[in-house]
Specification:
The complex is a heterodimer of chains A (352) and B (84). Chain A is of the alpha/beta class and 352 residues long. Chain A has two domains: 9-138, 3-Layer(aba) Sandwich (Rossmann fold), CATH 3.40.50; 145-348, Aminopeptidase. Chain A contains eleven helices and 16 strands. In chain A, the strands form three sheets. In chain A, strands 8, 9, 10, 11, 12, 13, 14, 15 and 16 form a nine-stranded mixed beta sheet that branches. Chain A has a five-stranded parallel beta sheet with strand order 5-4-1-6-7, sandwiched between helices. A two-stranded antiparallel ribbon of chain A has the order 2-3. Chain B has 84 residues and is mostly helical. Chain B has five helices and no strands. Classes of the chains: A alpha/beta (352), B mainly alpha (84). Chains A and B meet through helix 7 and helix 11 of A and helix 3 of B.
């Protein structure tokens, strides 16, 4: 198994990994030298941390608090079940790929157990923790506003999810109470680093899986034949950051979507469909056909379904993974009433 | 529950309707009743495939097969008849 993708989350064992000693046996455990600095440094790089430890939850969490490290660990899994089940839960909660998780543990048995169940997860012997900041997979190419805020955004999201689960009224009422604002803008230079990062990090709602370099994206923003849109979503809990991207090629008779992607963090908020609807409206307003490129990957079936349910049909399919959709623009959904939209050319809103 | 009741129940509990109190008929266009997003589309597809035990092929993933209770039930009946 080759582990090459950038790491999104490091999952730490505690006893004899994060600290020296076993919490159940001795009350005086001490942090491994320099490990706190490593955790803070990786956090600064936009890499998340979590815990998979066999311990009593309350004791372990109290100890992490004593070390002032508790706020760095998202969805900690501290219980007596297998480490693979812990990693499975973390993966689900963060909604990231197994191939972006790195697991650090001092015990070969635990590393093997995880590696057997999830071969995509890279396992690291705790003895080598000090090397982690120098590993290529832990040196993200990008340092953007979004990566700096990543942990905070996940924390805000945990509050959202908790409140949503506790809300007993109708779902549309809950969504309305969020005061969501969805902003579509044409990309500016300061958006391009994040735009490049999105093409690298987004897998599920990604129409082509193709990555774009900063320079390519820059060229599109200067091209009269292209429009590059970025989206941001915020609500009363905070901002999700820049979460979506679309690249449209303007030809004489068509709008051609070359790329469309949306972060999975905003899946339940309809962000992908709203961006798609906006582009459909714009194309129709300008009297153009609407085409869209699609390439199936092992992760993006949801994007295929999204296109099809938005009334896109396969215009051509070369059988080699290159699909071109066309939308006849006869069926446009109205925008959901619980989201406030800001976008260029406001005039043409809901012109159906 | 018959097929129709199952599909109605699924839509009722999963579609975020524009007007939650509105009644909908089996021929109403669900794409006009609520906002059909990626998550709903994927859930509906998975539900139909799991509950009735067949795979919806790409060329069947047409909006016309999924835009009302009646049309979804017709697709299910057609698929199940083809298996027999």
């Amino acid at each position: 198994m080759d582990h090459t993708k950038e790491v999104k989350c490091v999952v730490w064992d505690l006893d004899n990994t994060l600290w020296n000693g076993t919490l159940l046996e001795a009350d005086t455990v001490t942090l491994k030298p320099g490990i706190k600095e490593i955790i803070i440094e990786l956090d600064r790089r936009g890499i998340l941390h979590s815990v998979a430890s066999k311990n009593n939850y309350d004791d372990a969490l109290k100890k992490l608090k004593d070390f002032e490290l508790d706020q760095y660990f998202l969805y900690p899994e501290i219980h007596w079940n297998s480490k693979s089940s812990a990693i499975g839960n973390i993966q689900k909660n963060l909604n990231i790929g197994f191939d972006t998780i790195l697991f650090v543990d001092d015990q070969p048995f635990e590393r093997d157990e995880v590696a057997t169940v999830f071969p995509d997860v890279e396992t690291v012997d705790a003895n080598f923790y000090a090397d982690l900041p120098y590993q290529k997979r832990l040196q993200p190419k990008f340092s953007t506003e979004d990566s700096l805020r990543r942990r905070m955004m996940y924390l805000e999201d945990m509050t959202r999810t908790r409140d949503e689960a506790a809300y007993t009224g109708p779902k549309d009422e809950f969504l309305a109470s969020l005061n969501m604002v969805f902003t579509i803008t044409e990309a500016r230079e300061e958006d391009l680093q994040r735009a490049e990062e999105l093409t690298v990090r987004t897998n599920q709602l990604n129409a082509t899986g193709r990555t774009y370099s900063y320079d390519e994206l820059m060229a599109y923003t200067h091209s009269a034949d292209h429009r590059l849109y970025v989206c941001e979503l915020s609500d009363r809990y905070g901002s999700y950051g820049k979460i979506g991207l679309a690249l449209v090629e303007l030809t004489t008779d068509a709008w051609h979507l070359k790329m469309l992607l949306m972060s999975c963090r905003v899946l339940s908020r309809s962000a992908g469909s709203i961006l798609m609807t906006y582009i459909m409206q714009q194309a129709r307003h300008e009297g153009k056909r609407l085409l869209a490129d699609f390439r199936p990957t092992d992760r993006n079936k949801m994007m295929y379904v999204t296109y099809r349910f938005a009334n896109f049909r396969e215009l051509s399919n070369d059988g080699d993974g290159n699909i071109v959709f066309e939308n006849d623009l006869t069926q446009l959904q109205q925008f959901p009433p619980y989201i406030t939209l800001h976008y260029p050319e406001m005039l043409y809103r809901n012109d159906r | 529950m018959d097929h129709k009741a199952k599909i109605r129940a699924f839509i009722d509990s999963n579609l975020v309707a524009f007007d939650d109190d509105a009644e909908f008929s089996d021929s109403d266009n669900i794409f006009q009743m609520g906002y059909v997003n990626s998550l709903f589309a994927m859930k509906l597809l998975n539900y139909v495939e799991k509950e009735f035990g067949f795979k919806v092929e790409n060329d069947e993933m047409d909006i016309r097969n999924f835009n009302s209770v009646n049309n979804i039930v017709q697709l299910i009946d057609r698929k199940l008849a083809a298996v027999k």
